[in-house]
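ARCHIVE CARD
CATEGORY: sequence design from structure
SOURCE FIELD: tokenized fold
FIELD CONTENT:
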């Protein structure tokens, strides 16, 4: 997350509550992926846009650039 804190892994129950979709194994893998924007992982993880609180692969917001 942009505040320097990492999000704890999302559970199936939390995923379903936040997204309204059934938590498949693949969705949970993508949502909890530690790839952090690396090649082929650019849509993994959670959105950092305030108030979004959705997985990046579902929300459509761009991944913020990491400071160098």
């Amino acid at each position: 997350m942009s505040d320097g804190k990492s999000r704890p892994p999302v559970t199936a129950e939390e995923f379903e509550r936040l997204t309204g979709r059934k938590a498949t194994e693949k969705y949970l893998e993508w949502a909890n992926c530690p790839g952090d924007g690396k090649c082929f992982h650019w849509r993994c993880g959670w959105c950092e846009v305030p108030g979004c609180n959705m997985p990046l692969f579902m929300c459509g917001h761009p991944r913020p650039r990491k400071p160098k």
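CARD ANNOTATION: The chain has a mean pLDDT of 82. Helices lie at 12-19, 25-31, 56-59.
SHELF: design records, drawer C
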